[in-house]
Amino acid sequence: MITPTPKLVIVTGLSGAGKTQALRSLEDLGFFCVDNLPPALIPKFAELCAQAASKINKMALVVDIRGGEFFNTLFEVLAELDANGIRYEILFLEASDETLVRRFKESRRRHPLSSHGEVLDVIREERNLLRELRGGAHKVIDTSGMTVKELKEEISAIFADSAAPAGLHITLISFGYKYGIPLDSDLVIDVRFLPNPYYQAELRAFTGNDPVVRDFVFKSETTEKFMAKFADFVEFLIPEYIKEGKTTLMIAIGCTGGMHRSVALANRLRDILSEKNYRITVRHRDISRV
Description:
By secondary structure, the chain is α/β, with parallel strands linked by helices. It has 2 domains: 7-159, P-loop containing nucleotide triphosphate hydrolases (Rossmann fold, 3-Layer(aba) Sandwich); 169-284, no CATH class. Helix content is 39%, strand content 18%. It contains 10 helices and 9 strands. The protein has helices spanning 19-28, 42-51, 74-83, 97-107, 119-129, 131-135, 148-159, 211-218, 221-243, 261-274; strands at residues 7-13, 32-34, 58-62, 89-94, 139-142, 169-176, 187-190, 248-255, 279-284. The strands form 2 sheets. The protein has a 5-stranded parallel β-sheet with strand order 2-3-1-4-5, covered by helices on one side. A 4-stranded parallel β-sheet has the order 7-8-6-9, with helices on both faces. Helix 4 packs across helix 5. The model is unreliable at 162-166 (pLDDT under 50). One of its GO terms (molecular function) is GTP binding.
């Protein structure tokens, strides 16, 4: 019997971005979890778990700025893991400055870097300190517009065991350009050139989830032609990403407000890719905004 290679997920990112919730979600998925582990102990931790691989084959730990000077050794530790052939994934969580400030104000918690009351300054300082780590992350999740439930679903979609033949999880996210591009997107598609239901008074209050809006968007010959070319493009890319070892793919589809066209096209792409037995998650980020 072949002993499975233990899976190690290192959860890191900005304070207030949802690392605690992410760790709880991983624990629910059967991961052995440790919070705020000093980086220097990671190799020993991985070694101990590997020795008990038949019992512990999924591990997750949070390493972040709370470690103080210990945190500065993280890159050396990651190099050591690479040298020893220990496979790991880095999950980096972030959120907008506005979101993080609001979360700290609401929770009345002190930022780990704060020695005064200027929350925004230390958030920007931490973002700068973590810039290089973010660049090396295998997966980045922007939690700005996410509820705890949506974050849990995203974590589950990425890390839950799956029998999907491709081993690739695809997230389709519709959004409104007026609210900003999702920061963790791999591909961003602008569909603002398509007929806009917003300018039809009888359609404005509906969304792309409603058949009346969907039918309006797709009755356009331009939409049908674009959808065929777009789906063909994505289906070409997926096997190439898989060959490169990519395990997650986020495709962001944007229109002006994120209520109509982008929602309809994200749903249609989901239907097309689902027929190919890919794992698909759809999130309509801005569908409820006014």
